[in-house]
């Protein structure tokens, strides 16, 4: 990747050279192969020193490590760094009342004062182009930020879309609309994702049920399904599906990452480890975790009163039986598992899956399976059936 990715770039504006350093989180959520991730602070300081030695006295850090980490970085980074432009945490910073009632988590910019008195302003402007960052810094001849002016711009209906860009998009819009507006079926209920990180959510349950139903057609011998259990990571479920006609566009908005579906064998001990990892944080009165897995083909109880590593009681639905029923998870048994490739390949910290799976098969993209499922269903009414229970 070295020829394509630079640690820093230098741009020139109005006769002044400006150094820009890029930084990502050291802990990647997805596997990154042979890429070596350095400590963020050490890497930024090294690049800042290089730029300073080049005679550059205006240094901006373009960050994707999150608002809290940006503040921590600003407290300890080299005083040659002038500004941090942040991302990753989707944080809205704003001064005063926001134009549409959104909650701001800090001032724009948030100013961090180091022990030596050097100040570093931090800016971030929410996500998904809901706001446009808008700030002007005034920097003196010594490269010191003296003042600033600006505020994020809310991109509501009052902002007129650029006619030239809209014209350029038109040929693609017609083709995309033809696919995206296809009605796959109807949902009588909201397929909600807001609870997915704290327990069962019917969007995740519906998706897992769809994956499992697709595997019925692959069943062998006397078995009625080819797969025992489904697991979907909460982070892959982005928005809810509203009642009414469900289109391909709505489905893609709910699951936008186009992960491939994987099927593989997994020992019960490793399946239990994955479930334990999903709630492996410390919690007692309330629970919420981006690790949380939505499930199908099993029923799990997570008990906060038990020590970490012993919090999960799982039952697995039999697939080679006349009457499907749930039996206690057997750590010595081998189960057939269906997931998306994100966690199957170890993303989100789920290396217990990637390191121990066997007989891997890669199927279609996730939304393609769910398109077929929705068409077969026609009408969706998905409830909360108690497959996940949190006990305090």
UniProtKB/TrEMBL annotation:
Domain annotation 5'-Nucleotidase C-terminal: ranges: 183-354
GO terms, molecular function: 5'-nucleotidase activity; metal ion binding; nucleotide binding
Keyword Metal-binding listed: yes
Main location: secreted
Cell compartment(s), UniProt: Secreted
Single GO BP term: AMP catabolic process
Leader peptide range in chain numbering: none
PANTHER family found in the cross-reference section: 5'-NUCLEOTIDASE-RELATED, APYRASE-LIKE PROTEIN
Record family assignment: Belongs to the 5'-nucleotidase family.
Name of the protein this chain belongs to: 5'-Nucleotidase C-terminal domain-containing protein
Native source organism of the sequence: Heliothis virescens
């Amino acid at each position: 990747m070295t020829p394509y990715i630079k640690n820093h770039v230098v741009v020139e504006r109005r006769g002044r050279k400006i150094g820009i350093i890029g930084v990502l989180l050291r802990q990647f959520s997805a596997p990154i192969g042979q890429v070596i991730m350095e400590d963020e602070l050490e890497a930024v300081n090294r690049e800042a020193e290089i730029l300073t030695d080049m005679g550059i006295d205006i240094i901006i850090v373009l960050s994707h490590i999150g608002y809290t980490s940006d503040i921590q970085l600003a407290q300890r980074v080299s005083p040659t760094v002038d500004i941090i432009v942040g991302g990753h945490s989707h944080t809205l910073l704003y001064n005063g009342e926001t134009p549409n009632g959104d909650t701001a988590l800090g001032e724009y910019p948030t100013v961090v004062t180091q022990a030596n008195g050097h100040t570093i302003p931090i800016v971030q402007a929410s996500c998904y182009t809901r706001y446009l960052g808008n700030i002007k810094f005034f920097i003196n001849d010594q490269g010191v930020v003296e003042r600033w002016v600006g505020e994020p711009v809310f991109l509501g209906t009052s902002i007129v879309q650029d006619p030239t860009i809209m014209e350029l998009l038109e040929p693609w819009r017609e083709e995309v609309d033809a696919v995206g507006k296809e009605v796959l079926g109807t949902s009588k209920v909201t397929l909600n994702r807001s609870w997915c990180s704290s327990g069962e959510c019917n969007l995740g349950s519906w998706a897992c049920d769809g994956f499992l139903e697709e595997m019925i057609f692959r069943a062998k011998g006397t078995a009625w399904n080819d797969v025992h259990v489904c697991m979907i990571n909460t982070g892959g479920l982005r928005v809810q599906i509203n009642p009414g006609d469900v289109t391909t566009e709505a489905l893609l908005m709910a699951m936008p990452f186009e992960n491939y579906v994987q099927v593989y064998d997994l020992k019960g001990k490793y399946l239990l480890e994955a479930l334990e990892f999903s709630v492996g944080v410390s919690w007692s009165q309330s629970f919420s975790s981006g690790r949380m897995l939505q499930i199908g083909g099993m029923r799990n109880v997570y008990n906060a009163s038990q020590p970490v590593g012993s919090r999960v009681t799982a039952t697995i639905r039999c697939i080679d039986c006349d009457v499907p029923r749930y039996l206690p998870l057997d750590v010595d048994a081998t189960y057939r598992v269906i997931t998306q490739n994100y966690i199957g390949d170890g993303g989100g910290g789920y290396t217990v899956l990637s390191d121990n799976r066997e007989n891997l098969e890669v199927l279609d993209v996730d939304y393609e399976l769910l398109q077929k499922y929705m068409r077969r269903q026609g009408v969706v009414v998905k409830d909360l059936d108690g497959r996940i229970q949190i006990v305090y």
